[in-house]
């Protein structure tokens, strides 16, 4: 999988929007952009994914740059339950086998 | 509940022993992934199976092996256990290589 780069940590105040950036300058045309998060002592949880267009679901929004070399996960109103490590991952749509690397992610702290 | 079931939840064993971790994927998911997460470490990809066949291999030790059975459940076998093998072991499943993956709650292995 192509490499992604994320800040090690970010802070947000509760009930404010959070923008988590991810750079993936070597993304290929067949790579989907996936976001997962891991709460303490739990397994990772799928958040959202997209290919080219911006995506919204009940958990978050994903904004993808026009050149696809970066993306931003948007949590519209951070809650204390959103404190987690957020991972940005690229997944090849045509490959049934790939190594699905997580990287170091961004540790989000939500301040009450 | 992600739909992925891992058993057992906790396992304590002595050095030199062998253990088997079991994973039942979500219904319909053909891909199974195994990860190791040591204390305060990231998720290390171990191995992936797709419809019974090994498709990708990560940093899996030779003392570790896995397989996916015809009913699609998977087992991770860890042998000649060392203290350093103490970790959380996660299983994930997905329909295809690029689709969202769902993680189990993990098996916490403690080697004493």
Strand content of chain A: over 45%
- Largest interface, counted by CB within 8 Å of the partner chain's CB: A-B, 25 and 28 residues
H/E series of chain A, N to C? EEEEEEEEE
Mean pLDDT of chain A: 90
Structural class of chain A: mainly beta
* Overall pLDDT score of chain B: 93
Question: What quaternary form is this?
Answer: heterodimer
Largest sheet of chain B: 7 strands, mixed
Any idea what the shape of chain A is? globular
Question: If you had to describe this structure to a student in words, what would you say it looks like?
Answer:
- The complex is a heterodimer of chains A (112) and B (112).
- Chain A is an all-beta fold and 112 residues long.
- Helix content of chain A is 0%, strand content 46%.
- In chain A, a hairpin with a 6-residue loop joins β3 (31-38) and β4 (45-50).
- Chain B is mostly beta strands and 112 residues long.
- Chain B is 0% helix and 51% strand.
- Chain B contains no helices and 11 strands.
- In chain B, the strands form 2 sheets. In chain B, strands 2, 4, 5, 6, 9, 10 and 11 form a 7-stranded mixed beta sheet that branches. Chain B has a 4-stranded antiparallel beta sheet with strand order 1-3-8-7, with no helix packed on it.
- The mean pLDDT of chain B is 93.
- The chains are: A mainly beta (112), B mainly beta (112).
- Chains A and B meet through β3 and β4 of A and β4, β5, β6 and β10 of B.
């Amino acid at each position: 999988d192509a490499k992604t780069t994320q800040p090690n940590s970010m802070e947000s105040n509760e009930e404010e929007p959070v923008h988590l950036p991810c750079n993936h300058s070597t993304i290929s045309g067949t790579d989907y952009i996936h976001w997962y998060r891991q709460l303490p002592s739990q397994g990772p949880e799928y958040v959202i994914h997209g290919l080219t267009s911006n995506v919204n679901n009940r958990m978050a929004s994903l904004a993808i740059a026009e050149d696809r070399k970066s993306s931003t996960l948007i949590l519209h109103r951070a809650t204390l339950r959103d404190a987690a490590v957020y991972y940005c991952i690229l997944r090849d749509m045509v490959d049934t086998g790939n190594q699905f690397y997580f990287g170091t992610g961004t540790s989000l702290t939500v301040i009450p | 509940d992600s739909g992925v079931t891992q058993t057992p939840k906790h396992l304590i064993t002595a050095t030199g022993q062998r253990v088997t971790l079991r994973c039942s994927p979500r219904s319909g998911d053909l891909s199974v992934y195994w990860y190791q997460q040591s204390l305060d470490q990231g998720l290390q990809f171990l191995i992936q199976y797709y419809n019974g066949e090994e498709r990708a291999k990560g940093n899996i030790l030779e003392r570790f092996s896995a397989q996916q059975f015809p009913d699609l459940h998977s087992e991770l076998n860890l042998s000649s256990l060392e203290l350093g093998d103490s970790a959380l072991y996660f299983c994930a499943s997905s329909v295809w290589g690029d689709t969202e993956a769902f993680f189990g709650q993990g098996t916490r292995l403690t080697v004493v």
